Structure formats: C-alpha cells, structure tokens
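Dear Dr. V.,

Thank you for agreeing to look over these. As mentioned in my earlier message, I'm a first-year student in the group and I'm still getting used to reading structure tokens, so any feedback on how I've presented them would be very welcome. I ran two proteins. I've put each sequence directly above its structure. The first is here:
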Amino acid sequence: MPSAASGYRPLLRIPGATAFFLSAALGRVGIAMTGIGLVWLLHARTGSYGTAGLAASGFALAEALVGPQLAGLIDRFGQTRILPFSLLAHGLAMAGVLTLTAPVAAVATACCAGASIPQLGALSGARWAHLLRDGRDDELPTAFSLESLANASAFLVGPVLVTALGAAGATPLASALATALVLGGGGALTLQTRTAPSPARRHAEGLRTEPTLLRPDFLLLAALNLAIGLYFGTMSLSVSAFATEHGTPGAAAPIVAAASLAGLLSGWLYGLRRPRSPAQRQRSPGSCGHRPPATRLSHRQATRLSHQRATRLSRQQECTYCGFA
C-alpha cells in the first residue's frame, strides 16, 4: 500500500503501469489540443468563426454521443482489438480536415474525427482497475488521482500549445501535432497487451447483475459531473470577461493559469492522503454534506464500473468544459 511518504511511486513501479500511463497521458494532450486546434485551423482557412465553431461543436457533440457506444465495443471485445480501428478512423478523418478546403467537408470530417477519437483516459483508468484488483482496491483512489493529474495537465498544456502555434501562423501544424499525439499514444497503448483488461463478454454471466446506466445513483453522479463541468467552463469565461471589463484583459491568462496550477497541486496532495475510514463513511468537505452516490456502492462494485460509464462521465464533463471555455 502506498504511503504519503512514497506517494505515487509504488503504483508506477507495478510492471507495465508506467508504460500505459505515459502512453495515455501523451495521447490526452493531443485530445486536449484537437477541439481548439480545429477553431484555429478553420478560422485561418475560411476567415469565419462560424464555420470554425460549427466544426468544433460538431466534433465535441459527435464525441459525446458516439464515445459511449465506442466504449461499449471496447468493453465487449477488448481494448487491443477495437482501439486500432478507432485510431485508423480518427487519423483518416483528421487527414480530411487538414486537406479538404470546402467548409461543409471540413465540418463533416471534424464530426467523424470526434466520433472516432478514443478516450485514452478511460482506457488507462480501466487498466488501473484491472491491475489493482484482488486485494489492492484501496490503492485505486491514488491511481485515479494520478489520472486526474494527467487529465488536468493535458488540458492545461494542450490549449496553450495550440494557441502558441496558432498565433505563430502554424495552424495546420497544431492540428497535425494533435493528431500525431493521439495516434502515437493510442498506438503505444494498443501494443501493451499485458496490462489490458479482459473483454467483458468473457464475464457475461456476471455482467447480467451489473446496474444499468439508468440506475438513480449513476444518474445523480452524472448530474454532479455536469455541474462540475459547468463550473470549470464558466469560471474561465467569467474571469476573462471580468478582466476585460476592467480594462486588463491580459490579466485573465495568469489568473486562470494560477487556478489551474492550484488545482493540480491540490489533486496531487489529495492523492497522497490515506483515509483511515472506509469508503462508505468518507465525506467530501466541498459537497456541503451531500453523500456522493458512488459511496453507496460497495468498493468491489465501484471498481468494476465499466469503461463505458467512465467514458460517459468524462465526455459529459470535458464537453461541457470545452463548450464554455
């Protein structure tokens, strides 16, 4: 069991853990770059924010709608069998975005790119749950804190990188780099078969007793994630509007960056804590006394949440964030 002194190192010393974690982290930077990269690329090409916004929103909407369905296929057939097809489709779609000049074609291929982009963060989380089964469930909070740090870092670094390249006039390079990171990280993850969880169809009998996505506890958890996404998305917009209204628009970027860095630090520290009470008795001070629905599940049930559910929650929060940022 990792202690506060040892931090995350015991997790990363698990055979194969560092490799799949870094692969997914690399790909997540590309995912964070793709949406805003479309805005820069298509605005530079067409001169229209309307076309650029339509392509970016189509990308995000397709990702949100098709992502859970793709996740269901991964649950059923396994990561290493479905991921290559997803990466191939995403690569072809992004190639279309980069080469097709007609606005309608660019929007259509952007939607295809969103529908086929793999959720590498959810894939990495599923691998942690697979590796830490059989008596190591208490290490999952630390592993998921590490995943949260990787996700937050990706959405801090990715947009900054795209903005820098776009401001320098290299908008095609920004989108090409985003695609290369997604394909490179996803391809590396595909090759790591030892840490991949078994397909869910091998455990069909056990899956019949799993709660459905319409379970009230899960719906409440989804609503809470939507609220969190709205908070993070509108906060950056509010800071920018406030700074602009007071005649200091340049102050918005360092304020948002400071808040993001503070979030990274708090997430890192949270992952180091080792709660003495069981998961069912833990409370979050920030939840105003509300009991998180996930704690109503047994710890074993919580660790067996499928990749499909993890993807649905992550897509809901990320797309909410991207829609308001």
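The second protein is here, in the same arrangement:
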Amino acid sequence: MGAPSGPDPAVTAMTVGLFRVGPCMLAVSVDAVREVIRRPARTLAVPSAIAGLVGAVDVRGVIIPVLDLRAALGLGSDHVHDEVVVILRQYGRLVGLLADGVNGIATIDRHRLTPVEAHVPVGTTLHTHSFTWEAQPVWLLDAARIAAIPGLPMVAEAETRTTGRSFDRRVTRLFFRTGPFHFALQATEVDATVARAELRPSPLTSRLCHGVFDHHGRSIPAVDPLRLLGLGALEPAGESPILILRCRNDGRVGLRIDAVHDMVAQAADDVLPMPALAVADPSCFEGVTVDKHGTQHLVLSAEGLRDLESVDTYARLSGIGPLASGAAAAAQVARNQVVVFTAGARAAVPLLQLQEVIAYPEVVTAIADVRPHLIGLFDHRGKPIPLLALDRALGARAGSGAHSRVLLVSGEAGTVGFAVDVLHGIEAARAMQPHDRRAVGHVATAPSMNALVEIGAGGGEVLPLLDLQALMAELSGGAAVRLPRQPALAASA
C-alpha cells in the first residue's frame, strides 16, 4: 500500500497531539487521533502473535486492539501506573497506542520539522520527523506507517456506529478543566498547550490578565477564562498550565487552565444547546457535551471568544517579545515599541512608559471643580490613584466620556491613570523625518518632529507620540498642555 510518509508538503503548519511513552515525547497529527481513554485495569486477549500487542480494550462496545510502542521504539517494557490509550484512525480503521500520559497539543511550523530518515531505509521507522517543544525533543509518528505494520489487527471504524448517528463529520475536541468547570474546545483552534508557563508582571496585568509568558519568541497575555466568561475568578499565580488560543491577525491569547485530560473526535452535532440563561454571554459557547465518563463539558466557541473586545485587544498585544517592566532584555526588545490608542484622536505612547494597562474602573470617586481633566480617584491594589481624562489634559474639548481603558504611568509625583477611549495594540514605531511630507498635516499639533512616529510597514500611519511622564510633570501646574517633546526613536528610512 503506497501510504503517505510524514506531513503533507503543501501544509505550512500542522497541529499534533503530544503524549509520552517511557522517556520519549511523541506526537501524531490530531487528524489521526480519534480519542484518548484511560487504560483499563485489565485488557482483553487478542489472538495474535505480533510483537508489542498487549491486548484490546472495549470502547463503548467496540473491541480495539492496543499496541505498546516501547518494543518498536527500543524503549524497554517498563510501565507507569497512570497509563492511557491513544486511539488512532487510519484508512477507516482503529488501533490503540499505549502511552504514559497525554501532554496536550501543539501547532508546529513545517520549517521546524527535521527529517530523521537520512540513513535508514524508507518505512523502517514509525517516526518520520523530530522537533523541539518546550526544550524537549519530540518524535513525530506517521499513523500510516503504524497502520502498515505487518499483521497488526485493526477494527473497522464503521463498526462504531452503534447509536444510529452519523459519524461522517467529526470534530476533534480538547477536554480540559479550569477551577470547578470542565470545558471543551475544537483542537484545531488551539495553537498549543503549555504544561507550565511562568507568568511575569507586565503593563497588561489586571484582574483579567494575570501576566504574560514567553512562548517560542512571543510574549503572550495569560487571561483568567472564568472571569472572561463570567463564571467566577481564579487566584493570580506565578505559574500555570496554559491553553493558547489562535486569534485574528496571527494574534495569540493564553487561557489559564488546570489540566488537559482528554482529546476526543466527536460527531460534529454531538453538542446539546446551551440554555440562554445559564451563562452571561451565550455567544462564547457552542453548547454542552458529555464525555465518556458522563461528565458535562461546556463547549467553547473559538469565534465567540475572538469576538470579545478584551480577547481581541490582548491578541493585538501579543507577539512583540518580552513585556516585563524593568528587565534589560525587555527594554532592548521594546525600545521602539509604542502602544496605540484613541483619546479623542489616535495617538501613541512608548510602551516602556506604561506601568500597566487596565480596564476602566467600575468605581470612581468624583472630584469636581479641581481641574478640568481630573475625573476623580479610584482604588488600585489598595492605593488611591488620580484618574485623568487624557483628551482633556491635552486641551481637547470633552469627548463622549466613553472611556474603556486606563494607562497607568509612574513618575516622581507618584502614579497617575490616563483614561482613553480605545486601546488598539502595540506597534513597532519609527521617528518621522522633518522633510517627510506625510508629517506636514501634523505640524500644528506637534511642536517637534520628534513627537511624530510612523507605525506599520513603509507608508504606514503617522501618529503623535506622547511623553506621558513629562505630561504628568506639566499637569502639576494645573494647565492643559500640548503634545510634549518625546526623545527620538529610530528614524524612519
């Protein structure tokens, strides 16, 4: 049989399930994984003499042979207490692989895959490529080669249609737990799962965002999914398992979880409707499904999550390198990064000037007739913080007052919060040259060419650049000020 070998060359990235067999981390395409089950205490006998066949398991009335890969991979025969069976599908047939445990999923760019067959006959190994994941070597198995093992018994997948339901359309879902809730999410919407991510403070840290973590060169915000979905809240932590959600424009957001416990291919319609009154935002859920143990799982809608303003904002802020304030490495990466926002009009501020970016506070103690730009005071981590309307502080007429975010800036006078209308994201910025005709329209609002930056690719948007720390000092006199002078960034070509 001319079985394909390894990943499709036309595919630039592939999503794989990760599992451990002995000392080795193995991977297989999620398209080949039907489900993962716990190994029963006793397996059923199978009349076959093939090496490594340990018996069979009964999965909802279907007897599926189980293969122990340790012998084929030369790993010995030591077993651990907590084993699982990864059930593969290939050519419409099923077989189980014995494994020590499931480690989640990962999305791998094709250029990261290294062929491992340069000096062995084609087809003599079960793995075709290797790659590195979380500093560990991983070996990519080829499900077609496993199915082609001579004499390996496999059961026809059609025999699983015992309920009369159609299995022609399947969706592979990842089952996981966060706090007291069990969730499911389509596996192809997940960029990766991280067993333990170190969460660092950043300008994004808030009640919703518990910090950022590094993942393959990107700095990704880690959010509390319970607070995001209106289901409660997790306690902040310095480290946590993470599920990374793919977002628009190549953005990423990390969801804090407790553990991944299953990956199952289900019928696409095997989801019950979510009662409208059961959750705060039904658009974030596809419905409810029940796993093989009878546990109800809330099925998340990846599209609904991406539509949330907070998720979209955090996704835009991902991927520009370390964001931890005060670190030398962060300063080097973020030196020419700016945060883009709207405060009456679009503007930018250097990323490294911001202590945090937080949601507009629910409770603000109004202070009237003190300064026209002073909204009031709010409590942040036990300290009273002055809240200023940034557009009014810059001398603009009062806007709609529909503030959504607060930029926290610290200086000699303490910490101040500048309220802005919309937070757009982080961009690489270049200082404008005085002779650039695109800057002419901004001269009236910027006393210095150093206060204008260009964001985006060549011919991108020109924005005024604010020095909020200098603005804090000038506001101490009570007057509205124009855009302050900003130390130059790298010049635009």
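From my reading of the second output: The two ends are 57 Å apart (CA to CA). The helical segments are 70-73, 143-147, 225-229, 302-307, 309-316, 328-334, 390-393, 468-475. Does that match how you would interpret it?

Kind regards,
E.
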